[in-house]
Amino acid sequence: MAESSGNCTAPELPRHLIHHILSFLSSRESTKASILSKAWFWAWQTRPELEFNSDICASKKLKQVGGIWAFSLSEIHKNEIYEELFEQIKKTLKPYSRQGICVDTVNLEIGEIVDSQWNPLVQKCAKGAVKNGVRNLHFSIPKCDLPEIVFRAKSLVDLSVSWANIPRL
């Protein structure tokens, strides 16, 4: 009879297959799946489609302050939302840069609570996406400037823009 060491390990799937599986799961489910193994965690951390949405940060802030409408947020709370989203973008793009992994799709949606002060965040997101070989870029950025770097992106296949100021080149 074969001896059992008590550890049952299955061979790891390739990262692209894990990405494919994770693409069928909700954010919550894919986060839970990331604890299966180191390979699943790294695949979850470097998923090919990235979503950044200021409305999600705003709704969290509204729950904290007991507000109902985004326009009722104070400038301090709007700045906190900006900082939180900025940090999320920086933290999310870091593993891609470090490991030289391409990003397939980046969606950046900024709600109506913003003004042109958000331009640095939009620039950071676009620069990080282009640096990591983004193929699909979707911006919904009212009152913000569309970064010029997206027009020089060699990897870009699809650019979708709504509610952005487009600079003259």
UniProtKB/TrEMBL annotation:
Domain F-box: from-to ranges: 12-40
Entry superkingdom: Eukaryota
The protein's name in its UniProt record: F-box domain-containing protein
Provenance organism: Cinchona calisaya
